[in-house]
């Protein structure tokens, strides 16, 4: 199958040689592979954007999961922002609260758009709807944000992994945060190379993150990891826009993420057997929710 | 390349909480129903690896049952699929297994009714994408790098020619193809990896060909 890029290096080179945005290369590749029209593809992505908006809106009104482990934190954060005394700043906390909102909706079995997965669905929309207030993008630029995120996610999914069961949380929230970071840079007017640097800086700081969901639920620590993924994405985007670069090339960082995922024990890859899931409180919550037998015969 | 479309990365739109364990699971259930060709009367679902360890927390069980009821990943009825299954008269059982499998998110779905039974193995590879790796004991050897369809047919001459002619008509190039059968004259199947996406209308046309029992997409 012919593709326009197989790794980040090819993606950035193509964008810079043709003087195009990374989002444009992604749209062109999608047209090439699926033989669909540009309009068709843009319409589908706008539908995804709308789902994301609705999820954030719902989460900011306050939702709670069936288990009671998560919910309501997005509301707390918005109320705190309103007071105007936040230490990390309005944009940062807004991104965090909207990432949390999305994942609280996800945990409550609401409708979300996976980016790249459901457990990591908060980072890309959370950062998008926060930077939106400052950068004032057009609707098309917001759709393009998702294509830029998708272009980087495409490389990670094919060259490493976006599955917590295969690569740990670094593959999920790590990938989501790095994707978002690259997209912020494009929306803020940075170069394709700066998007790549932001991606690398974010991913490097998510390496090794394990997937250890308490009681096997996509709640603890997933929701708060989306919050931190969003903050990582914003900081790394600023660093890249300031001219900071990664000493390790982006594709090698992705390779390292894959290798780390391979050598991670299965107890730390979405089996709920290690890490936070195996703490006394994690175990207690598990037995409280499932009555002591999480693994047994079908219910 | 396992992931081909940007919508594999930004998408699917789905009911939470997990793309691999909920959306992927729903898709595995739906392909099983598709291959079986009708609503099964019963289903036995064997879960392996991370699926076995965390299926309740991830709602993998309601998602697979939802898929067996033909629900898409964003269908709100997934949440109440157990009740819907009872109403539809479908019995089901989940069996967490301890055996090792090649992929951490593996499900063997055995479905049946008074007419026949079918066994299928599906894996959820992340972001909601799935692959079908076995059908009725036939291993489906896919490279995983191309879209693939599965054609179940009666072992009669001309079937393979008819299918490949139909694909040729729509300019769909076959990259790899495997044919196998249980016994001469009995059930046979073709696994066809192609370079282009096979649209629903073409799948419908394939289904109309003589001696074809089932056509389904097993990788896209």
UniProtKB/TrEMBL annotation, chain A:
Entry keyword set: 4Fe-4S, Gluconeogenesis, Iron, Iron-sulfur, Lyase, Metal-binding
GO molecular function, one term: L-serine ammonia-lyase activity
InterPro entries: Fe-S_L-Ser, Ser_deHydtase-like_asu, Ser_deHydtase_asu
Enzyme Commission designation: 4.3.1.17
Top-level enzyme category: lyase
Pathway field: Carbohydrate biosynthesis; gluconeogenesis
GO biological process per UniProt: gluconeogenesis
Residue stretches making up the Serine dehydratase-like alpha subunit domain: 18-277
Domain of life: Bacteria
A Pfam family: SDH_alpha
Catalyzed reactions per annotation: L-serine = pyruvate + NH4(+)
Cofactor requirement: [4Fe-4S] cluster
Family the entry assigns: Belongs to the iron-sulfur dependent L-serine dehydratase family.
Protein name in UniProt: L-serine dehydratase
Source organism per UniProt: Planococcus halotolerans
Gene this chain is encoded by: sdaAA
From TrEMBL, chain B:
GO biological processes: gluconeogenesis
Record keywords: 4Fe-4S, Gluconeogenesis, Iron, Iron-sulfur, Lyase, Metal-binding
InterPro entries: ACT-like_dom_sf, ACT_dom, ASB_dom_sf, Fe-S_L-Ser, Fe-S_L-Ser_bsu, Ser_deHydtase_bsu
Cofactors that this protein relies on: [4Fe-4S] cluster
Keyword Nucleotide-binding among record annotations: no
CDD domains noted in UniProt: ACT_LSD
This protein's pathway: Carbohydrate biosynthesis; gluconeogenesis
Reactions listed under catalytic activity: L-serine = pyruvate + NH4(+)
GO MF terms, alphabetically ordered: 4 iron, 4 sulfur cluster binding; L-serine ammonia-lyase activity; metal ion binding
ACT domain boundaries: 148-220
Family according to the record: Belongs to the iron-sulfur dependent L-serine dehydratase family.
Protein name: L-serine deaminase
Organism: Planococcus halotolerans
Record gene name: sdaAB
């Amino acid at each position: 199958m012919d593709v326009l890029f197989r790794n980040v290096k090819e993606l950035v080179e193509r964008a810079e040689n043709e003087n195009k945005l990374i989002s444009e290369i992604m749209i062109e590749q999608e047209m090439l592979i699926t033989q669909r029209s540009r309009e068709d593809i843009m319409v589908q992505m706008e539908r995804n954007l709308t789902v994301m908006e609705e999820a954030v809106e719902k989460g900011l009104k306050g939702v709670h999961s069936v288990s009671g482990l998560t919910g309501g934190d997005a509301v707390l954060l918005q109320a705190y922002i309103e007071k105007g005394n936040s230490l990390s700043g309005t944009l940062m906390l807004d991104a965090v609260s909207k990432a949390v909102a999305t994942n609280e909706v996800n945990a409550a079995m609401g409708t979300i758009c996976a980016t790249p997965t459901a457990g990591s669905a908060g980072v890309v929309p959370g950062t998008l709807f926060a930077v939106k207030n400052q950068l004032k993008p057009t609707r098309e630029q917001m759709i393009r944000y998702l294509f830029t995120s998708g272009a980087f996610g495409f490389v990670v999914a094919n060259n490493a992994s976006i599955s917590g069961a295969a690569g740990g949380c670094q593959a999920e929230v790590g990938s989501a945060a790095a994707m978002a970071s690259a997209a912020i840079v494009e929306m803020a007017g940075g170069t394709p190379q700066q998007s790549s640097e932001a991606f690398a800086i974010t991913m490097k700081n998510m390496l090794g993150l394990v997937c250890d969901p308490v009681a096997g639920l996509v709640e603890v620590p997933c929701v708060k990891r989306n919050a931190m993924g969003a903050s990582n994405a914003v900081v790394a985007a600023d660093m890249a826009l300031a001219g900071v670069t990664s000493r390790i090339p982006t594709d090698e960082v992705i390779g390292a993420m894959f290798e780390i995922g391979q050598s991670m024990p299965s107890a730390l890859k979405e089996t709920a057997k290690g890490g936070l899931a195996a703490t006394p409180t994690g175990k207690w919550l598990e037995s409280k929710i499932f009555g002591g037998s999480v693994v047994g015969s079908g219910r | 390349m396992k992931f081909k479309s940007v919508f594999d990365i930004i998408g699917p739109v789905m009911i939470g909480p997990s793309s691999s364990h909920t959306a992927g699971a729903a898709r595995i259930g739906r392909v099983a129903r598709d291959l079986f060709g009708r609503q099964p009367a019963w289903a036995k679902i064997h879960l392996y690896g991370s699926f076995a360890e965390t299926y309740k927390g991830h709602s993998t069980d309601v998602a697979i049952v939802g898929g067996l009821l033909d629900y898409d990943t964003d269908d709100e009825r997934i949440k109440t699929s157990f009740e819907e299954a009872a109403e539809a008269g479908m019995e089901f059982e989940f069996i967490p297994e301890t055996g090792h499998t090649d992929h951490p998110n593996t499900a063997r779905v055995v479905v049946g009714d008074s007419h026949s039974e079918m066994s299928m193995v599906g894996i959820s590879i992340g972001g909601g994408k799935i692959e079908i790796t076995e059908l009725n004991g036939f291993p489906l050897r896919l490279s995983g790098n191309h879209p693939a369809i599965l054609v179940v047919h009666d072992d009669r001459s001309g079937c393979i020619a008819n299918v490949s002619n139909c694909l040729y008509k729509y300019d769909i190039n076959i990259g790899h193809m495997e044919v196998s059968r249980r016994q001469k004259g009995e059930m046979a199947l073709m696994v066809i990896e192609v370079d282009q996406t096979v649209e629903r209308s073409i799948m419908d046309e394939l289904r109309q060909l003589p001696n074809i029992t089932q056509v389904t997409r097993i990788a896209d």
